[in-house]
Structures are given as structure tokens and as C-alpha cells.
Amino acid sequence: MPRHTEDHRLHLLREMLRIRRFEEKSAELYSAGKIRGFLHLYIGEEAVAAGVMQSLAPDDTVVATYREHGHAIARGVGMGPLMAEMYGKAEGASRGRGGSMHIFDAATRFVGGNAIVGGGLPLAVGYALADRLRGDARVTCCFFGEGAVAEGEFHESMNLAALWGLPVLFCCENNLYAMGTALQRSESETDLALKASAYGMPAWHVDGMDVEAVEAAAQRAVTTVRGGPGPVFLEMRTYRFRPHSMYDPELYRPKEEVAAWKERDPISTVQATLREQGALDNVALEKLEDEVAREVEAAVAFAEAATLESLDDLARFVYAEGAAE
Amino acid sequence: MPRHTEDHRLHLLREMLRIRRFEEKSAELYSAGKIRGFLHLYIGEEAVAAGVMQSLAPDDTVVATYREHGHAIARGVGMGPLMAEMYGKAEGASRGRGGSMHIFDAATRFVGGNAIVGGGLPLAVGYALADRLRGDARVTCCFFGEGAVAEGEFHESMNLAALWGLPVLFCCENNLYAMGTALQRSESETDLALKASAYGMPAWHVDGMDVEAVEAAAQRAVTTVRGGPGPVFLEMRTYRFRPHSMYDPELYRPKEEVAAWKERDPISTVQATLREQGALDNVALEKLEDEVAREVEAAVAFAEAATLESLDDLARFVYAEGAAE
Amino acid sequence: MTTGVRTSYREAIRSALREALQRDPRVFVMGEDVGRYGGCYAVTKGLLEEFGPERVRDTPLSESTFVGAGIGAAMNGMRPIVEIMTCNFSLLALDQIMNNAATVSHMSGGQFSVPLVIRMATGAGRQVAAQHSHSLEGWFAHVPGLKVVTPATLEDARGMLWTALEDPNPVLIFEHALLYNAEGELPADAGPVDIDTARVRREGRDVSIVTYGGSLPKALAAAEELAQAGVQAEVVDLRTLRPLDTGTIVASVTKTHRAVIVDEGWRSGSISAEVTARLVEHCFYELDAPVRRVCSAEVPTPYAKHMEDAALPQVADIVAATQDAVSTVA
Amino acid sequence: MTTGVRTSYREAIRSALREALQRDPRVFVMGEDVGRYGGCYAVTKGLLEEFGPERVRDTPLSESTFVGAGIGAAMNGMRPIVEIMTCNFSLLALDQIMNNAATVSHMSGGQFSVPLVIRMATGAGRQVAAQHSHSLEGWFAHVPGLKVVTPATLEDARGMLWTALEDPNPVLIFEHALLYNAEGELPADAGPVDIDTARVRREGRDVSIVTYGGSLPKALAAAEELAQAGVQAEVVDLRTLRPLDTGTIVASVTKTHRAVIVDEGWRSGSISAEVTARLVEHCFYELDAPVRRVCSAEVPTPYAKHMEDAALPQVADIVAATQDAVSTVA
Ligand SMILES: Cc1ncc(C[n+]2csc(CCOP(=O)(O)OP(=O)(O)O)c2C)c(N)n1
Ligand SMILES: Cc1ncc(C[n+]2csc(CCOP(=O)(O)OP(=O)(O)O)c2C)c(N)n1
Ligand SMILES: [Mg+2]
Ligand SMILES: [Mg+2]
After folding, report:
1. Contacts of C247 (CB under 8 A, 6+ apart)
2. Mean pLDDT, residues B216-242 taken together
3. Would you tell me which CATH number, out of the four given (3.40.50.2000, 1.25.40.20, 3.40.50.970, 3.40.50.1820), belongs to the domain B6-313?
4. In testing the pocket of ligand 1, which one of A117, A240, A241 has its CB within 8 Å of the most ligand atoms?
5. ipTM
6. Do B324 and D166 touch (CB under 8 A)?
């Protein structure tokens, strides 16, 4: 059950701030040329990752997208390896081979960093199938955008998970746009939870800008999945405050719409609640911000100090090393 | 509107008999080694093709599956070229290159003969899109089995057709099995019309063993599609009396189930109605059977007399001849 | 070698599957109609009854997702054997195979691996026309991160699966549909075989015929016919198309100085091109004549028997190309 | 040739698209984010405003179906230009491309044709890692029934689309993402160009460097460098990978007697192998040295810049391979 104590609320705020500040720094480093390739920021959507992760156990699995810094940080992937990965360093989460879009971390069962829209869904079904076959009580939590709902793999994965009663939590991050394509230009039925329920699985939606609501919904969903058999679909209604990636001129959405959503910034909302409750004042917030800033700085320092993989190892890991156990 | 006159009923009976007898002969010729490759018989499902085709205009388009003899015959593709195609002859519908699974006929706008399950659905969407862009009032009628519903292309095509309001009639032939896989082992939601309606299009089902019911439902569906904008989904509940193909030992379904469905043979049903009405007696039936038999025999004779494509022309048509107009 | 038991290629694969299921609880088989139908080419027949529906799983028609689920299950500790009914349908799963199975190990810096086996039937010759007659094994061999094997003998049909399951990488097994009925003797205790070397199936000194899979019997028949005409052809079975065992091919051609490659893939960009390139790179100066290729005609496979026959490599084509190769004066 | 107008590769394609939409009411453009977003690489920017949403259609993320819909629309009389955002995502549409677009004409005995153009960005070099850096043009060139073109110059960027639209067959246009910003002069009235011949982009007598697409500028830079060192390299731009213009390649190598192939595809089974095989088949006795290949390393493209650079063909690699080729004594 969600723990709506002040301490927990502060924890949620901290988690969201960690994501926000990490990404603001990433954007800065991108402009400075330290980070390259595609960079997709999660800013505005922090409540989703922060809220959902509360409901998962260490043994559960997370499958994410290319917009996955938030998921990775909230899941407990170290900021140092994350940043080092974006620097392309050997100490990076994926040894510099993956970059921003392909963060992997076996220790926290964080399975990508998947940059083919919809491509992570079948993987999640397979993870859940393996758990089911072994009798492990794990949940596989799979994040994807509302844009992925139009892909055939979404359909096949929803059907297979429901048909076989597999423990998958389908977390659809509906931020209303897939690059420049608005939901109503991509789906004939824009009520995604309704759509999902046509697969015969429980499906509901939640305000993705309200971290406590997300946490509660995820908790309920995870409990349902763990009780089994079968998956649950959760639509999180959220919004990205930034462009799709660093290249996007954002021609497709009105500035007023962006402004209106920014009014609902999940971080400000929790801060306001905590202030009302008297659980947060300027001093406490500054301390919190300071701690987060130091964590981000340490990550940058780690990345800066990290080394480049030797080119002798270019082809390493194309094939797995050693025999399978 | 369906014309439930006796004449029309006799016409429907004739159409179904044409399919049935043609296919019985094909099975015989397959055993004799005259026809090779995969041969998928439509026997038992004739009411679907015969019923649906009544509602289509000559200018409409038909996209079918690899179990398409019934669709082709009811659409008006000549039995001679059809049989010659299965003989692999140059006078065959597809000049011997396609065989049973790839019957094409430009004259009747019969666009395959598609042997990748689900692969015809995007083509149908494209046909309808072209008509819409040009302002042609045509309908594209796309047949597929219930097995195809699990494929990603089904999902993508349903969504795109509904989203763009395209004139497609989706005809799902639910014969309960995809090879040996029963519907309940392939779909988490076995009410296919319900599933289809989640795309926001009208969807209903009909008894696929009752040719008049099929015709009425198809008529209504085609009228809806022509009225536009947007597609309609029609689930035809039917059954194949024969194995999936000539290789299938039919281990997966009980003999009793097959027997029970055979009781509902669409041909016997119409015959019984006509007899009750006094519109069909033994003499008339014999005459009808005789005419159909002669048509089938003529097709066989055509195929036997037809010639083999010259091997000099092996690579002909890999690329289209001449420039595009 | 213990005394042989009469068996077929189909049965050899089936017994390999059965043993894998018996040996390792992590192994399961999944694909369209592998269970109740009895398997597309009857390969998996009886396994459902023996191992139950959890380990022999009939899937819906969803190639991309059940292949992707195999990848996920492999990453999560299982040893799935996924069957794609025929390689023609693998096109629907290519995103999962190339973007996930082949990349995850490298892209994750070695944190994850994909010990997955994908079996598929391949090849033409049964008049099933353009959408059911592909030979895509050479094409798949282009992709780093995958292993591609093409058993041509009973021993390999039985043994390659074992080794593939022990491999920590995704291994694609292409079984030529025309081989399923091939019969012969196999030792009762036939076990794993390596999956990274080519093998000389017939010794010869005049010319090397390099081939694999469903074309091996044709190449051997051609060599037999050539022997009558006094030409001693060596027949090299590639066995594995990725990684390609350059050493064995080069050794053979260094001995014979002439090469003919037989490959059911469409000629342009087939594995026959890669073999040619390797020969040029590794033993150019040993070549006494241009390398010949006997491949499929560049047409979508036609249905009519005479056209299909003409489109595919035949024994007579191999004999002719080989005669041509040996008669070329350097 | 009228006086040139300064333009970019991106603008050349955009103006070709605009002209096509103006010229023929059957033409329409469809793909992910071609409209409101302004195009993935901004190629289609402004077309929505000019031609409206019916003719410049944003699609949902459904690669298989919008490509298949393009095939159907082409068969039904339209002239669709389908954009797959990058060739990495074409894997999701391969069934439609290989099983339908490439086969329908033959399989229907010539009753139908598929006058479809599919454009996609290809290639690496922007640190977008394993799932966004494929060079699949050579791989697609394996498939009969398709045409595969790879414009490397402004003139081809502008003119190939025109010709592709006039072709009754499915034509795949691969645009290397690193070329979009390339600038140069283009005659204001630049029109269609043929799409079935290779072209010599630089004359030379010592060695032929055969390449295409995004590697052409690298090959030309290498030739420049080699010229300083006294080596006169001829640079052949394949332009079209299917059908492959064997004649032009053979003519060049028959003159120079040495060949280096530069290809961003993964080495094994890339188009470089096919070019090698053709040289062996058509001018074996003209070759004074083994053919060299400069290709991508056989790894899923890594993100880190130094690793990505090392994985791709670079000017220095081309220079070294060419030096090596010319210094080999026959
Ligand atoms: C299969 C595929 N097609 C296209 C793309 C290019 N692309 C990257 S992100 C994206 C939009 C995805 O939108 P959504 O799923 O809603 O996620 P969001 O970016 O909004 O988080 C597109 C089209 C891709 N990566 N994969
Ligand atoms: C993509 C694909 N996967 C598998 C097959 C093999 N196959 C041919 S028919 C069939 C069953 C299709 O069932 P359904 O769609 O219900 O049609 P029905 O045969 O019952 O008419 C299968 C699995 C195929 N042709 N295409
Ligand atoms: Mg989105
Ligand atoms: Mg069925």
C-alpha cells in the first residue's frame, strides 16, 4: 500500500528531483558536446517513473524505452555509470556501447534502454514467461509511449500476455505525442485503457502528473499482477515539457498547451503539498536540492574521470564470452 | 438489399455448388498428382464467399487468402484459368507462377491469393486509400481467417483504416482453427466482433453457415462502408469440413465436432429451404448439378489442354514490363 | 562409433529436441502448431504428449512477439527453442532478431546474453511458390551477433541443436524442408557436434564444390557423376554460415585450385558471393580459374514444376559448372 | 547545363518531392512525422503546408501496414512515396517489402505491378548506436523484384526520385543521413537521371575504388590523398545496388587491374562481396591483385565516438587498402 506519510512524500520529491536535475545537466552537457547521439529527456514525466518504481521489488524486472533516464534513476541505476555511458566511457552502464538510448543494468534487472518503438514489449512478455515457467513470483514492468500502441508488437504482446496469463505490468506513458504525431492522429480509439481492456485484461488510467496517484495505481496494479494470473495495463496521462529530442523544433503543439501542462509540474505539486503540511520549508528544500546537485556533480565527475574503452575490445561482447551456464 | 426470391436462392445454391464441386475435383486431382504444392480447401465455408460476393459491385476490390478458390469462383474468376493455374500452366490465372495460393485476376479486381497470414490486410488498406484519394466510391473487401487476428498487421490495419476512415470491409472467416490452433488458444478475447469494435468501427458477427444471413449482413456492411467514412468488421462464424491442407492429420479437433458442423452444411440448408418452398425437386437439382459438373469438367479440360510457359520466360514479370503509365 | 540406428532427418531433430527437454528443465519449445497439430513438418510430433503444454507451447500467429518473447525468456535464464514454421515468416520477426537478439549482448556491454535457439524450415522444391520458398540462411548470415547453422546430415540434424543450446548466443538453425525425409544410419549415442567448422564430405583433388544444407545431396550426386567422367571433386559442407570457416574452404581450394559454390539463395548477394570474396582475399594466387556460382535464379520462386526446377540449382547445373571450372586453362 | 544554384542534398530531395507532388496528382507522401513534425531529417518540411494532409500523410507508428498500404495504393493506380524514417525500422516492414512488393508482379503473371517508391535514411556516424545505425541497402539488394538506389550526389538526390516514380517497380531509395547537409551547385532545371548505371566519379589508371552512397565522399577524399602520393585512383559510384551495373565496374577494373570496394555494410555478405564475385566472374584474368574490401566492422554499431569511428570505413582505411592493392605485385 502507498505510504502517504510526509517522509515518503519527501522521498518521492527527492526521486523526481534527482531525475529532473540529472536531465537538466544532461541537456547542458549535450549542448557542450560532451553527450552525443540522440538524447530524449523525461522532464515533466518524472512522476511516472518515480511513482511506479515504488511498487516494484528488487527482484522484479524493468523494461524501458529510449527515454529511460527517469526509469533508470528511479530504479536505482547509479547516476555515475549512467552519465559515463552518455559520455561513451568504459565505466558507463553499457561500457560506452549503448549511449543514452541503451542503458542496461543487470544488477537492478534494468533491461534497456530499447530504441525501437514497441520493441521492448515482446522482451517483457518473455521475461514474464520465464518467471512463470520457473515459478518465480516476479513482475515484469514494461514502459512504452502511447505511440507504441499503434505498432503490431503492442497488439501481439498484449494478446500473448493475457492469453498465457503472464505477470506483466504494461505501463503506457501517454504524453499525447509520438514525436510530432498527436494521439488522435495515431489511434482511432484514443481511450487507451478501453482499448487495452479489449484484450481481456484489467486496464485503468491515472493522472501521470500526480506522483502519489501514480504510486497508488501502480501499487494496485502490481498487487493484481502478483496475485495473478495475468497482466494489467496502466495508462499514465502525462506530458513532456521538452522537445522530443534535441533536434525537434516543436512545430506541432501550441505553446499554450505546453504552458498549461507546465502548470501541473509534478515536482511543484508535491512541493506545494509538503509546504502546506509544513513538512518542507526553503531551508529543507535547499538542502534537498543541494544533495541532489551533489549527486549529479559526482556523476559528472565520475564520467569525466572515466576512461575510453580500448579499441582492441571493439568486437568484445558481439558474442557472449564463455559458454552459457 | 438481399433479394430473397427463389431465383436468387437458387443462384446462391449454384454458387456454393460451383465452389464445392470445383474443390472436390481439385482434391481428386491433387491425389492424382496433377495439382501440387499446398492446397487449402474451402469446403464447408462456401456460404461466406457466395454470400459476401453478392453485395459487391464489379468495380469493388477483393483481397483474399491462400484458401481462396471459393472467393475467386464467387467473384467471377473463370474456373478454367483457376484450374489451369493449379496445373501450373501458362493459361493459368497467374500464368502458372502462383498456384493454388496465389490466384490473381485483374479483370475482376481479385488481388490474390495471399499466403502470408495477415499479409493481405495492409494491401486492402492501401487499395481503399487509393480509392479515397481519387474519390472513387469503391469498397475493398478483405478476407482473412480468425488466426490472422493475432498478427500485428491485423491491429495496424484495423487502426489505420478506422483512423483514416477508409472504405474497407474486413471479412473475418472464423472457422475456429488456425491450422491446429483453436481460437481460444490464440486469442485472449474470443469475441472477435467485440475486439474489432475497440478500434472504433462498426463490428458484428453472422452465422457463416447461412448463406442468406451472410448476404444480408454483407449487404448491410457494404452499404455502411459505401456511405462512409470508415470500415466495417464482419465476423463470419463458419467451419472447414476438411483438414487445413492436404497434409494435415487433424489430430486437434474431435470427430464429433466436425460431424456436428457438417449437419449445418450450408448447401444442404439452402437445398432444404428450396425443397420446402417447392422451388427445387430432384430433377431440378440434377440439372443444376449437371451444369456445375460440366463447368468443372470444362475447366479441367482447359487446364489439361493448356500449355507450359516457355522457360525462356522464367524471369519475365520479375520486373514489370514497360514503363508505368 | 557404435552401431547405427536407421532414422530420418526429421526423427534426428525430434530426438534432439526430446533429449534437450529431458536434459535441461530450462528448455522449452514454442511456436505455431508445435503441439496439438503435431508440428508443421511433424518434427515436434509427440512432444506435447510427453512434456505437456507448458514446455511445448502452441503460440498464436504472432511471429514478432513469440520470437521476442523467446529472446526475453533467454535473457531471463531459460533456454527457449523457438520454431518459426518456415523462414518465410521470419521476415515478420526480423526486428526482434536483428535489433534485439543480435545486439543485446554488445549493446549492454556484455551484461546480458541471449542463449536462444530459433529453428526454421527453409528452401524450395515443393511447388509452394513465391511466399513459401525462400532460402534466407545466407541472408541472415550477414548479421553480427547471430550464429547461423545449416545441418545437412543426420548427424548434424541431431547434434547441432545440442551445441546450439550450449551456446550463449542466438543460434538460428535452418532445416531444408526437402531433407526431413532423408534417411540413414545414426549412432544411437550420437551427441553434440561443433557448430563452427566446415567439413569435407568427399575428398577430391581437381575442384572444390562448396555448399551447405539442402544443396549438399545435390553436390554429392554431382561429384559422383563427375567421378564417372574422371573429375575428382572435393565437396565441402559449410555447415555454419556465420561464423564462416574460411580456413577449411581455403585449404580445400589451395589443394584443388578451382571452386564451384552451390547455394540455393538468390545469386546476387547470397552467401556464395561471400565465399567467393573470402577465396579472393585468402587464396587469390591459388585460383587457377574464376570461381563459379550455381545459385537460384533471381526470381520469386514460381509454382509450376518445370519453372521451379529451372529456378533452383540442379545436379546437372553443378556438373556443368564444375566441368567448366576444370576445363578452364589457367 | 544551366548555371547552378547552391543547394543541399536535403533540399534537392525536398524539391524533387515537391515537383513530383506538383506534376502528378497520383503522387502522395506518407510516413511517420512527414507532416506536422516537419520530417525526421527535415526533408519533407513545408510540404504539408503546400499540399495538405491528404497528400502529405502523417502515419501512426505502424511500419508494416503503412508500407503495405503503399503497395496496395500503388497496385491501385497511385504513385505513393512512402518514407520509412530510417532503414532500421524497415525490419518491421520486411514481410510487406519482400513477400508482397517484390513478388506481386511475377506471382500474378504480370497482371499487377507495384510502382512504389520507398525512401529511407541509412547509415551510421551520428553516435546513435546499434538500433539506429544500420546500412541495409546492400542487404535489400539481394531481393529480386526490388530496385535499390543510393544517391550520393545532389544531382542523384534530385533526379533519382523522378526516375523511380516513373519506374513500374518498387524502388527503394537509401539516403545516407550524413549526406543531408552536403552542399553544392545544382542546375536549376536538374531533371531525372537514370537509375540503372554506375558512374565513374573520378578517373584514374592505377586502381578502381568502387563505392556508393555515404562512402563516396570518403572514397573521393582518399583518392585525393592518394593522388598526392602519386597513385591515380578511379572512383566508381555504383549508384544503384540492384540491378548492379556489372559493365561499368568491369570496364574500370579491366583498365586499372586492381580494385578496392568501400561499403558501409557489415563486411560478411555485404554488397562488397557481390561486387567481388562479379569481378571474379567477369574479369578474373584482368585482376593483378586480390580485391580489397573496406567495410564496417562486424559489430552492432557502438555509441562511443572512438568506437563508432573505428567500426566504420574511414578515409585512412581506404587509403591504406588502396596503397596495399597497388603495391601488390602480380
Ligand atoms: C519502430 C520505430 N519507428 C520509429 C521510430 C522513431 N521514433 C523514435 S521515438 C518516436 C515516437 C514514439 O512516441 P511514444 O511511443 O509516444 O513515446 P514518447 O517519445 O512520447 O515517450 C518515433 C517515431 C523508432 N524509434 N522505432
Ligand atoms: C505469417 C504466417 N505464419 C504462419 C503461416 C502458416 N499458416 C498458413 S495457414 C495458417 C493458419 C491460418 O489460420 P486462419 O487465419 O484462421 O485461416 P484458415 O486457414 O483457418 O482459413 C498458418 C499458421 C503463414 N502462412 N503465414
Ligand atoms: Mg508519446
Ligand atoms: Mg481459421
Report:
1. none
2. 97
3. 3.40.50.970
4. A117
5. 0.98
6. yes
